Amino acid sequence: MTEKELRLTKGIHKLVRGNLSWEESWELLSEVVASEEWIKYWEFEAILLKYFNKN
User: Fold this and answer.
1) Helix axes 36-54, 3-16, angle to 10 degrees
2) What is the DSSP string of the chain?
3) What is the structure's pLDDT at 27?
4) pTM of the prediction?
5) How far apart are the first and last CA of the chain?
């Protein structure tokens, strides 16, 4: 995971926990949407979790 992806992941954790202001949340979400690599990483992560949780 790149430094940017790690920063976005930490930001999402803060967002989910309610630790960001409205402005910070909006900025973070716009950056996440623009990051195809980050989205692909977590889509693949979800696929792997789904596959391995079946067994």
Assistant:
1) 70
2) --HHHHHHHHHHHHHHTT-S-HHHHHHHHHHHHT-HHHHHHHHHHHHHHHHHHH-
3) 93
4) 0.69
5) 26
